[in-house]
Input
Amino acid sequence: MAWFASLSPVWQGFIATLFTYGVTALGASLVFLFKSINQKILDMMMGFAAGVMIAASFWSLLSPAIDLLTQAGDNAWLTPAVGFLCGGSFIIGTDLLLSKAQFLQRRASSLKRSVLLTTAVTMHNIPEGLAVGVAFGCVANNIDGTTLFSAIMLAIGIGLQNFPEGTCVSIPLRREGTSRLKSFLIGQASGLIEPVAGVLGVIYALKMRDALPMALTFSAGAMIAVVCSELIPESFRDSKALASFGVLSGFVIMMVLDVALG
Output
């Protein structure tokens, strides 16, 4: 931890989002071992990730943004409201693209199906990488309410939800007859954008301090939209009790650790 804390925020953001990409690749790599995964395990993981991301959206993103605006004497509700809605709308838009890609799969060639699906999921991952990068940039800027630990926990939460995401891209492709290697390459490719977005998020946070509230609340809106549109529906479909326990556990652990160490 001391070694990681001594790094520049750019390197911290890069390593953190390299981790989230690595978890995506790890999830996609299951295609080499299975044609299907125990859904209860995935539901529990997605529920836990949802809880972590809900808690992180407030304590690591929204609350620091509101504090920044209050200290500056600015309107403490307008910018958070606009930023939050913009972030959520971005995710809704990429979800619509993903739905369109899934529809077009039945009418396109194998290569085109792969490109459509990977592009849609990649766009979905951009705000996740930005959120992690902005979080580390805020720590470097000594923004009240942000800690290195909370930024790390945010990256862990996003990484956890990336695991089933990588699996959910590669396994269906394998079922359709795509080779194991190609299914893996497509599944992991969806997470490659996160390290790039993470570094850009750190630089943005360091260079444009006045715009931080908008960036933080945009990221918070994106996180909540991911939870609502992807994690909750998927995890609650078959294992509502396990998924609920996962959400509660993830939220409480993130809340306790963030408040205790903040």
The chain has a mean pLDDT of 80. The two ends are 16 Å apart (CA to CA). Residues 39-71 form the longest helix (33 residues). Residues 81 and 217 are 8 Å apart (CA to CA).
